[in-house]
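Same chain as my last thread, 163 residues:
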Amino acid sequence: MERRFYSALASDSRAQLTYTMQGPFGYVNRNYYGTYDNEAAWKNDMQAIFNLARMWYFTGNSAYGRNARYFNRWANTNDHFNGIESALDLGDYAYRYGGGADIFRGTWPGWTTADTVAVSNLFANVYWPATGAGTDEWGRPTKGLWVLAAGLACAVFMTIQQI
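reply #2:
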């Protein structure tokens, strides 16, 4: 069964060393007055970051690990995530951006303290506020689950940095 999962991962276009980033962008939104600026690019890049992190981990091929720079580009560029449904994207993709960052930070020897600080700042100053987790306005119960998932991904990464 594991071989089938690995084959599916390895065949995904966003797990290839030839993947071309679609961002980063300073501004991403999901449903800000009916607009979805840079949302699709953000989703594809977050999936690619997670896929490339896992390919690095599974294969040990340093070329995959060097793609940690994709996350760093987003962390140093993305300063605004907005929209009335932003928590849905952030929650749905939490394991991708949180997992990718954790894999690279924990296993890639090229990951630096500056990388951790940049990603922590992205999580604390952009993603966390966009989730609405620090408010009492989470919306429908299903939206609340996405808020929790996103908040947890941010909090775990930032907490482990402190340990």
